[in-house]
Design the sequence.
């Protein structure tokens, strides 16, 4: 999309089209002859995997919408009808439900890769922010989709999440009433969630277009974080990365199929197979696994508004990350101290996810009661959540800003090719030493 | 005269015209466009607010003889659960005894029920934290306990411990007779 185009139309019809709508040129320059750093590892395949996930969700979602009825009296039954009576309905619905989880597995891998290799740093700030917007849209879409089957978890999840807005001073109540279209989560709410759940994936697709555009202006980051300096540092996207991405997609689909065909309800919650009952809340209400870290942050704060602010803040902080990290070195490969703090950050996220699925008063170490600190036993999930929440924000707001000024990075290679060509085993000969001259 | 005049505006539209008139047209046109978009945006925002039929939801009447002493019946009102609890003497006494205790949303028990009807506690059954339905007679204070995030309410429906900021709400209601109550 940027730089010199190498596309040469070979047939008359291609030349005719190229002067009217250069769409073949766009495709050629974006996914065939697009120069890509030659050292990308498998963490870079999640972009392609995510595109596949979005495609699967849109296709299966459009099919489900042909059979689903967005009404409080019929929604649950229509989903069961899809499962039992519609031809291959069970397959399409399980693809859609498990596809959402697969989508989040891929997006979290993609985001942690960006965090580790500094893909958010200049000149890729806009690319990163567009990614954050996609993630926000994904969360909104997933939340509203989970409400549609109108089971117990659907209903009470919707109640809890929409009530979050009630924490806002003055306007809170008006906003929740506006979101509900009534005085409680009811038919009006289900209807609008269905409408928006259908719309948002196409908005995601639009922002993905911008995301790829913003990627192709500066080009890919790479595991060394060192800028591409010459043609020797790159290979054409096709066939090198079409094949690598394709292989990763196949592996990912095997994981997908394992859930889909052998344990399709493993990532869901049994209570959502009970029709929604506004008069009884399930004893242990939890969101889907991919929201658990944020749910743990929400519950870690004893104050309603404070919890809501911190939960949204956990996502908002990602938007300003490019300006929080002061290190000039992109890749954590050359930041030994930074790497350590990053690994603890990953653990903190996993701990938050674990805490989000437990009752706040549960013991972390079973059977051991310590003492009540302020409002809860020190050996409780709520205190573990507070510790992990503190580290989550500390990593972005204290560690990354200060570490960049104080740490001593190790030597970065002069270029992407240097560490390969100056391998201690000695200079390889022939085609291996100069792959660009081969054939 | 063929001399070139330096410094004069070569724009023929500007020559001899008051530039303020053109500015005015630009600003007026822009303001009209913004106003029109704003006026059109409101219907699209307001359509999400409760519709006329939702607002017209009728009040409910309830036969109190269905509730035994020490028990609670939950009915649906305006899409939300409504608790109708017949409190025992011990529960009333416990609530009154705590009137001056330290709590997040201090309120005396007597203002939370109708005069002379201390046994009837009628409340909206939505936790003031995030709207879950608290369970009957649970928690540390014998009133209600919210399973979602652990809010404890006493037998007057007052928040005593946990993240909820306010007491369980008391709806508008009146006794039509000794055995019938009208809510809403």
Sequence:
């Amino acid at each position: 999309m940027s730089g010199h185009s190498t596309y040469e139309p070979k047939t008359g019809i291609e030349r005719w089209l190229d002067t009217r709508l250069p769409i073949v040129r766009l495709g050629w320059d974006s996914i065939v002859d697009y120069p890509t750093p030659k050292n990308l590892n498998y963490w870079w395949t999640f972009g392609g995997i995510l595109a596949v996930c979005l495609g699967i969700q849109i296709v299966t979602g459009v099919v489900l919408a042909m059979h689903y009825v967005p009404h409080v009296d019929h929604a649950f039954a229509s989903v069961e009808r899809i499962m039992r009576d519609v031809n291959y309905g069970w397959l399409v619905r399980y693809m859609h439900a498990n596809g959402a989880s697969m989508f989040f597995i891929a997006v979290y891998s993609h985001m942690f890769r960006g965090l580790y290799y500094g893909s958010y740093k200049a000149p890729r700030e806009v690319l990163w922010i567009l990614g954050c917007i996609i993630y926000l849209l994904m969360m909104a879409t997933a939340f509203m989709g989970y409400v549609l089957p109108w089971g117990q978890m659907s209903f009470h999840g919707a109640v809890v999440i929409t009530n979050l807005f009630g924490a806002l001073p003055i306007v809170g109540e008006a906003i929740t009433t506006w979101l509900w279209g009534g005085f409680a989560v009811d038919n009006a709410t289900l209807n609008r969630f269905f409408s928006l759940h259908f719309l948002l994936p196409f908005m995601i697709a639009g922002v993905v277009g911008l995301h790829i555009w913003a990627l192709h202006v500066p080009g890919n980051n790479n595991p060394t974080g060192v800028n591409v300096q010459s043609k020797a540092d790159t290979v054409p996207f096709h066939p090198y990365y079409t094949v690598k991405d394709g292989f990763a997609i196949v592996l990912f689909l095997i994981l997908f199929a394992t859930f889909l065909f052998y344990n399709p309800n493993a990532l869901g919650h049994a209570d959502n197979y009970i029709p929604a009952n506004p008069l009884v809340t399930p004893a242990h209400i939890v969101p889907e696994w991919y929201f658990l870290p944020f749910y743990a942050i929400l519950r870690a704060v004893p104050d309603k508004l404070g919890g809501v602010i911190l939960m949204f803040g956990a996502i908002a902080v990602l938007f300003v990350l490019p300006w929080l990290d002061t290190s000039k070195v992109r890749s954590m490969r050359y930041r030994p101290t930074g790497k350590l703090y990053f690994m603890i950050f990953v653990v903190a996220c996993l701990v938050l996810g674990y805490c989000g699925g437990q009752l706040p008063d549960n013991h972390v170490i079973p059977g051991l009661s310590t003492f009540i600190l302020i409002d809860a036993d020190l050996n409780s999930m709520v205190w573990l959540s507070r510790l992990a929440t503190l580290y989550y924000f500390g990593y972005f707001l204290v560690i990354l800003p200060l570490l960049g000024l104080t740490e001593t990075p190790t030597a970065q290679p002069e270029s992407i090719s240097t560490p390969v060509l100056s391998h201690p085993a000695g200079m390889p000969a022939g085609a291996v030493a100069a792959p660009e001259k081969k054939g | 005269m063929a001399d070139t005049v330096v410094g004069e505006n070569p724009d023929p539209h500007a020559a001899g015209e008051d530039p303020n008139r053109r500015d005015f047209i630009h600003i007026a046109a822009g303001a009209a466009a913004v106003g029109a978009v704003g006026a059109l945006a409101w219907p699209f925002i307001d359509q999400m607010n409760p519709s006329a039929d939702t607002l017209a939801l009728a009040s409910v009447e309830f036969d109190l003889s269905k509730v035994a002493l020490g028990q609670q019946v939950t009915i649906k009102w305006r899409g939300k659960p409504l608790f109708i609890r017949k409190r025992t003497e011990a529960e009333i006494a416990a609530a009154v005894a705590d009137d001056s205790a330290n709590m997040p949303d201090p309120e005396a028990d007597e203002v939370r029920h109708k005069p002379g009807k201390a046994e009837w506690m009628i409340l909206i059954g939505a936790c003031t934290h995030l709207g879950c339905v608290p369970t009957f007679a649970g928690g540390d204070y014998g009133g209600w306990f919210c399973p979602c995030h652990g809010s404890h309410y006493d037998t007057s429906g007052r928040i005593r411990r946990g993240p909820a900021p306010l007491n369980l709400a008391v709806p508008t209601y009146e006794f039509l007779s000794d055995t019938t109550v009208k809510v809403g």
